[in-house]
Automatic annotation (TrEMBL):
GO terms for biological process: ATP synthesis coupled electron transport. This is Cytochrome c oxidase subunit 2. One of its GO terms (molecular function) is oxidoreductase activity. Its main location: membrane. PROSITE patterns: COX2, COX2_CUA, COX2_TM, CYTC, PROKAR_LIPOPROTEIN.
């Protein structure tokens, strides 16, 4: 009895631990707290399949327990051999037909939702953004607004936004769990999906396709703002003049160093279509540096001096002369002062 009790306690502990860990996570990085149309539809499918599979599991466990108890070997029957039976057409038909029915029940709504989320019949009436996946960052081109930016995707709340996605190198996968499902981003064809957020806020996005050594660091953010804030953000981004000198003397020196080190060969500022490296317009308002580092001057200096250590496999490594501490700090000061608009991730939802 003691041995069995120990095993039962161990199983209960493991079950409790699994349940506890299942609650870990972030509200803006989970498919279980939907904040957009696509995520909401996906959640309904998750609930449907969970209920069906949970019911199947429960029935199997009950039947298994009944058979184990009802037909267990009893004392004095150690040498008893029960009647051997095989083949029951009724049972075989039942446990073949029922799974087929359950699969159909799950397949029909899944197919309908898939076609719904892929429907682009009203694409021309809504915002269209061309998204390019790169190792290991994302570029965003707002078609009608003629805005180029990277890493932080601004969209208005409650509106459909069509995303036309293509890769510059390998296969990536665009995924914002709280807003919508995944979509593969391929080198040879453009895949289109739409997202529609219910609430303002900052939502985390991930690349969901293993794409290289820094795949796990290929993060981005979707900043959902009010329609009025979105219009202001668009106007500010369109009217930004990259030729305007920074206010501080240190930042001015940083701008000169930025140009001297040929950073402009890869990084565009403003509406330039250059996509070799991330567009740096409004860099000072970014939520992260290199997709995952906190936006501090220290982290930016470290990134400028040695990007390979922080994000292995990135294409920035070795593309510019080595910077000393003073040069890196001045360039960092220049980039962090590059704030185009008052519409920021911090203001979203407030």
């Amino acid at each position: 009895m003691k041995g069995w009790m120990g095993k039962i306690k161990a199983l209960m502990l493991m079950g409790f631990t699994a349940l506890l860990l299942a609650g870990c996570g972030k509200e803006n990085l989970t498919a279980l707290v939907p904040k957009g149309y696509g995520a909401d539809e996906s959640m309904k499918l998750i609930i449907l399949t969970t209920v069906i599979m949970g019911g199947v599991l429960l029935i199997v466990v009950i039947l298994l327990a009944y058979v184990a108890i009802r037909f267990r070997r009893k004392k004095g029957q150690e040498d008893f051999i029960p009647k051997q039976v095989e083949g029951n057409h009724t049972l075989e038909t039942i446990w073949t037909v029922i799974p087929v029915i359950l699969v159909i029940i799950m397949a029909i709504p899944t197919t309908l939702v898939s076609f719904d989320l892929a429907d682009a019949s009203d694409k021309s009436d809504n915002i269209n953004i061309d998204i390019t996946g790169n190792q290991y960052w994302w570029h965003f081109n707002y078609q009608d607004e003629e805005i180029q930016t990277s890493q932080d995707l601004y969209i208005p709340v409650g509106e459909k936004v069509y995303l036309n996605m293509k890769s510059n190198d390998v296969i990536h996968s665009f995924w914002v769990p709280s807003i919508s499902g995944k979509m593969d981003v391929n080198p040879e064809n453009t895949n289109t999906m739409y997202i529609e957020a219910y609430e303002e806020g900052v939502y985390w996005g991930k690349c969901a396709e293993l794409c290289g050594p820094s795949h796990s660091l290929m993060d981005f953010k979707v900043i959902v703002v009010s329609k009025e804030e979105y219009e202001k953000w668009v106007a500010d981004m369109q009217n930004y003049d990259p030729e305007v000198e920074p206010e501080s003397a240190v930042a001015q020196e940083g701008a000169e160093l930025f140009e001297q080190n040929n950073c402009m060969g890869c990084h565009a500022i403003g509406s330039s279509p250059i996509e070799v490296g991330p567009n740096l317009t409004n860099f000072g308002n970014r939520t992260k540096i290199a997709g995952y580092l906190e936006p501090t001057k220290e982290n930016l200096v470290d990134w400028l001096k040695d990007p390979e250590t922080l994000k292995p496999g990135n294409l920035m490594t070795g593309k510019y002369p080595e910077l000393n501490d003073d040069e890196a700090e001045k360039i960092a000061e220049y980039l962090l002062q590059m704030k185009v608009t008052d519409v920021t991730p911090e203001s979203a939802g407030k």
